[in-house]
Amino acid sequence: MRLFVSSVCAFFMLFATALAYTPYTIDQLHAEILNTSVRIDLSKNMGCGSGEFVYSEKRDGEWHTYVLTNHHVVAPHIQRVIEGPNLVLKYEPLELTTLQHGNLGKDVDVKTYMADIVAYDERRDLALLRLKNKKEGVLYTTPISKEPSSTPVGTEIWAVGSDVCQVPFPTKGIVSLVYRKEDLRFIQYDAGTFKGKSGGGLYHFSSQKGRFELIGVVVAVAGVSNMALIPHMGVAIHNDTVRSFLKEKGYAFILK
Questions:
Q1: Domains of the chain: which residue ranges?
Q2: Which pLDDT tens digit goes with each residue over 158-176?
Q3: Contact between residue 196 and residue 171 where contact means Cβ atoms under 8 Å apart
Q4: In this predicted model, what pLDDT tens digit does every residue of 58-85 receive, in sequence order?
Q5: Cβ atoms within 10 A of the Cβ of 252, count?
Q6: Helix (H) or strand (E) holding 196
Q7: By CB neighbour count within 10 A (0-12 exposed, 13-18 middle, 19+ buried), where does 129 fall?
Q8: Fewer CB within 10 Å: N-end or C-end of the chain?
Q9: What are φ and ψ of residue 184, in 5° steps?
């Protein structure tokens, strides 16, 4: 009897240890999904959105730093102006804010940047920004997952963004549905999502590569047929669509 009780206790101790184990550290989580995230502030008190640094490297003597987000986030900064017989598109710069976390979150540095819109696709609801500062880059960027099958139902995910226009913060859940609408793929997930998170990153941790990777871009709060919103669920644009967008717009070098 004592042997049986001891065996049961040992089993539950091992089970509890397995549940408590995470393959990443808090500092790694901060560096790879928080320090890469930005809040996008729109002019004229028009609200905010979210984005993530996806590339920052020095080429031809200047820094190229890019931020991925939604088209509908930056659309108010795209103006259609008639100049003589021509319709001209003018792009208003955007202000970005990010928190850089270090030392298990004890050290936090607030940084702001200005960025220009360099590419967008209204149908895919994606946009790419480039920082105006070309003299220096950023330390942290997020890799975009290359795996089209990396998002099966049940995959643990983190959704990061500027919900209700706060500085970027994470919510955690799982993939609840992967579906296609026409030729575009989407991921439905069950992590808290509120207004302001649009353009934010959907991440999972790749045990094989030992890092967090971007598997989607948050695009909406999940809803039901009567148009009621479900704030603990969200929808993201699948990384397959993100990769196609970057390739077609001439930014394939961002993909790693």
A1: 32-141+246-254, 143-239
A2: 999 998 899 899 999 999 9
A3: no
A4: 998 999 999 999 999 999 998 877 777 7
A5: 10
A6: none
A7: buried
A8: N
A9: -110, 140
Integer Cα distance of 161 and 218 in angstroms: 8
* CATH class as words, domain 32-141+246-254: mainly beta
Helix (H, G, I), strand (E, B), or coil: what is residue 204? strand
Exposed, middle or buried, 24 (CB in 10 Å: 0-12/13-18/19+)?
A: middle
Give the per-residue SS3 of 80-104.
EEEECCEEEEEECCEEEEEEEEECC
pLDDT tens, 19-28?
456 788 999 9
Closest CA to 242 of 189, 203, 192: 203
d(CA 48, CA 56): 23
Find all residues with CB under 8 Å of 7, minimum gap 6, and list them. Answer: none
CA distance 99 to 87: 39
Residues 6+ positions from 132 with CB-CB distance below 8 Å: 93, 113, 114, 115, 116
- 4-8, 217-221, 223-227: which is most confident: 217-221
Indicate the residue type of 117.
Answer: I
Using CA atoms, how far residue 15 sits from 11, 19, 207, 229, in Å, is 6, 6, 20, 37
CATH code assigned to 143-239: 2.40.10.10
pTM here is: 0.87
